[in-house]
Amino acid sequence: MQVVRVEMEGLTTSFRYPHFMWGRHPTFEMPPPATIYGHICSAVGEWMDPIGLRFGYTFTHEGKGEDLEHVHAISPGTGRPLRQRKRGVVFAEPVNIQGNVNPLTREFLFRPRMTLYVSPADLAEYFRSPRYPTVLGRSQDLMSYRRVEVVDLERAPRAYYEHTLLPWEMQVRVRRGVTVLMPRYVDYSRGREPAFERYVILQNRVVLRPVEERQEDLDEEERPVIRYEDEAMLHWVDPDSPEYKGAKRGVWLHGFTE
Amino acid sequence: MLKFTRHPFVDVGAAAITAFAGKSRPEDLSWQDLDEVADFIERHYTRDPLKSFLTAIFPNSGYVQPAMKPEKFAAFLNRYLYGYRNEESVSGLRCVYCGREASVRVFRQHVPMLTGEGMLNFFPGAAPGLPVCGFCLLCIQAFPLGATKSSGRTLIIHSDDEQVTLRAARNFLQDNLKYLNMHDITKYPDQKFPRTIFVDQVLRISEDYLQGQERSPSITLYHLTNYGTTADVSILHLPAQVVEFLSIASSARFGGVWREIVRRAWQSVDGARPGVARNFLYEDLFELPERAARFVQVYFLRQGFRAPVRFKDDPRSGYVLERELDLISWDLTAMFLREVMEMDAERIRAIRDLGDRLSSYISRTNDRRFFRDFYRVDRYGQLRGLLIKASNAEVRSGRSPLIGFDEFITIFEEGRDLPRIDWRLARDLVLIRMIERLHQEGKMLEEMTPEAEEIPGGEAAEG
What we know:
Chain A is built from four helices and 19 strands.
């Protein structure tokens, strides 16, 4: 399968938990699918139909920090000139929006690096010449594309996954990682209505092999052998990735709408 | 009606209501169950001890506003607590939690950590507030019943395994109902050390549920306050591999040793238990896998740990190997390496075999000096020299060398002459196996071990 492989890096990034708005903005450890959708659309220059669009990635950072930021908390104005007690009119124009400055703690990830895989491959030209400034996370989190290539992912019966996002259904196979509820897609045609999905954030390397190959290790580990209906699964692997235990790095291709 | 949505507040609320009704799934709840819990909330949220607890969760809400007029309070309850009975809808918008038609827009006084009323930030289309349905809103109003108070904040436990969420909420609900039945309590007891409370709950759930399961879930702690200008949330994850380690460690095979290791990690105070004392092992689990080498040294090799001064009554500084030989377990350590550190089975086997050979060597030759030097070695060159010297001695005596080239590379080196970054960890692991074997053979380890030496600690170690 041909995909675009984009290698990028930046100084900081932050992926806010959408339901925590005040006091602290915690960050996910990896970019949610909705963020990737926005990133792709930013390169293309318009909101794309998400159907048929697929992505996978490996994402690393060098640490998490926090920053105290000022948020301009805005609310609707009265539509009348601004008056203050004893001082009369202090702003003669109608005030439609007013705001206050509030401090807020925001978590951020330091030195993010991402290898993004996007299908279809004919989007490569957009990544070579992106329409809008390249950011990942907040609008001030600039990223640099270091390499944009079209590569052929290969099918393989074994693969290793690391520093990536997997669908929650894979948790039972990898038996590792942290489950998170992430925004999968934000529907701009319906007033930015969000759709959420569960994913597994997998940091450490996990090798997935057919059961018969795993038998020896499983005996050693005294774990029960778990069989699945789709045991003979094939993985998409990046042929250019380093080999580990006879496996290449797997690329799990997610959709945005299914 | 009610269902788990995968959002922590809604799910913990649904779990608390399910436990309150004595049912096993939110889908089993009836209208009567919902009415009963809503009635309970109406009666108890407006008076202490719950009222004071709720000022940090729903500030400015009808529950905690003494100045709110009766008719306004009734409207508040009708809209936000009994909203599931109404047929109101926010035209064209769906509940952000469950996808049903939304009935009301909510703000910070209804759902913690949202923005205040009228604030436009973070909402699309300059339409402030989050659209929510009456059922999810009832769950959110109920979630404090499935929570506990810790360090002035609200502590909830959420998991991708719904049974874990349900059982944690049920445990907290039972405690909360107990407090409500005490007539002389005006404030919820505030419990310290949220991490210790969290792991204690996970272990309780592990004993009666997780050990029988095929998969280990990931479990998350949310520790939050929605109070005034200090609103804040801490999110702590126990990844699936750590939950799996805890489940296996608590099982019958390791239970005896593991429970004793845990017992000796409690803060040295009278009546040490979750809520009143810290368990240092529980708290150190959150440093994994980054600080796994130190974890192995302190808890499996039983080396004393010099804790930062700010941690009083830290029992780890009193760990002395010769007094705790019964806690040295290679099998438990190997399981930790496999589950948490994801060490290769091949390297674990090589470390175990080397430990076996070295213990046989010491047992046969009574070479106490070798043991002491191996225990104390601090430079990689010294370690290599020790092993080569002992191996040469074995070869001169007509026996096989203690370690082969491939094995040495597997255990200690990245490549030839390039030590692994974790060679000290490998040394500690070999020691654990050696000590266990020598102790089983009844050798006088007391005379072999060096004077108790503490590992330097540090602020960063404690997080």
